[in-house]
Amino acid sequence: MHxxxxxxxxxxxxxxxxxxxxxxxxxGAGTTHRRRTRSxxxxxxxxxxxxxxxxTTRATYRKAxxxxxxxxxxxxxxxxxxxxxxxxxxxxxxxxxDLEVRRAAVEALGPLNGAVVVSDPSxxxxxTMVNQKLALGSGFQPxxxxxxxxxxxxxxxxxxxxxxxxxxxxxxxxxxxxxxHSNNYYFASLGEKLGFEKVSYYSHLFGYGExxxxxxxxxxxxxxxxxxxxxxxxGMLTSFGEEISQTPLQLAALMGAVANGGTxxxxxxxxxxxxxxxxxxxxxxxxxxxxxxPMIKPGMRGAVEFGTAxxxxxDGPIAGKTGTCTESHTHLGWFGSFNDTGDRKLVVVVLLxxxxxxxxxxxAGVAGEIYRKLSEKNYFAGNSPITPAALISSQICxxxx
Length: 401
Hints:
single chain; alpha+beta; Beta-lactamase; 14 helices
């Protein structure tokens, strides 16, 4: 009988416990409701987000694109303001292009949102430009592709040689390793050693801040800062390309000069068969980098063979440089490259935009697929067509103050 009695204190404790539990349930219900409100999306959009967040086949991506009726989804991890997947061929004019090269580029890019520029480094002719609107736009931050121009500047000024090992986080590295693995500390150090004025001089010499093409309708010159970036100074500029806007054409022109031994051609884009027949190469300026190219090429080859661009690796040697960064809620993946063997050389530049899948290694994978497809067609075994032409040189753009 004593056990069955319930004291007033026990009753009070039980009432308090019940009230606390009830309040917790109400709070939980409210929280769940808010979460559901935040995540409410059309089912098609959720399907695309999930598909793009994991590795799937290209067929899956195409299917997801076709079944999405609403606006492009924001990829998890952003908010990214550009879609990762799109039809990158809309609006392109292909009348003056090498259709074999274009076919390889379009198939390699697949459903990814990006641009591909393929040019002949011996003439400056653009053989294909996939997603012409993006390629001819105002440009994007170059990310780590800027390191090629910085390496050439540092070697030109003799502030470093290829065997010099600079102390970075984790030890010491030389230029070959720094290029292959895209070491930001190494290139920030080169920027500090050079100083902004010299970095700016060589960057303009190599084509930043000006049109890469000759009379290409709609092309924009990108942008180069007039002073060291407020975010990180010259070190951020020389490791990430901070405050620079680079166009795919500018990177293609510079890669062409490295591939051909130092001639910076005006890129030209024939728009019909007649312009192809009448094509005359035009030299913008000759860069004094021929002795330096063998010093950076091992790092560019290493990037493909064992570094950040390993997805581009194939039977023939490829030299290139990746770049990955984020600008204005848009993830960027760059790869500038050229094949380093064969009777015919090509420059292949890939720019990817969108969410997390838009990274430099993925861009390298697209380029590698282009090289593989063309190699299967024996494209590199033939000689480039020779057009009798007078090469017109222009004066060097600038001098060190």
